[in-house]
Specification:
Helix content is 13%, strand content 18%. It has 101 residues and is α+β, with helices and mostly antiparallel strands. The longest helix is centred in the middle third of the chain and has 8 residues.
Length: 101
């Protein structure tokens, strides 16, 4: 989670596609990048977090591709707080308070 608390905004893409079936198919993805040094021991990739100004640029319909690409770097080292959790969270059937510990 962000070390400052509050809402975390992530770079993502969405699309409504009707080519295959004629019916709208809505898809989305979270954009990832190489993990920063703080998180690289957990995984080699991380979602691209967008702080306020970057998020506004990402959502701006006038933002061109090169400007958007410039927003897609790893988080600064102090952005995330990492906390070790139990293996309980790795099971999709678990939707209980044990996932919060």
């Amino acid at each position: 989670s962000p070390t400052t608390g509050g809402v975390m905004q992530l770079a993502g893409l969405w699309e409504v596609n009707t080519r295959a079936t004629g019916q709208p198919i809505r898809t989305c993805t979270i954009v990832t990048t190489a993990a920063n040094a703080r998180l690289s021991s957990i995984h080699d990739r991380m979602p691209v977090p967008l702080e306020e100004e970057a998020a506004a640029s990402w959502l701006d319909l006038q933002c061109d591709a090169s400007a958007a690409l410039g927003l897609l770097g790893p988080a600064r080292e102090d952005f995330f707080h990492a906390k070790q959790v139990s293996q309980h969270v790795n099971n999709a059937r678990h939707e209980d308070a044990g996932c919060l510990n």
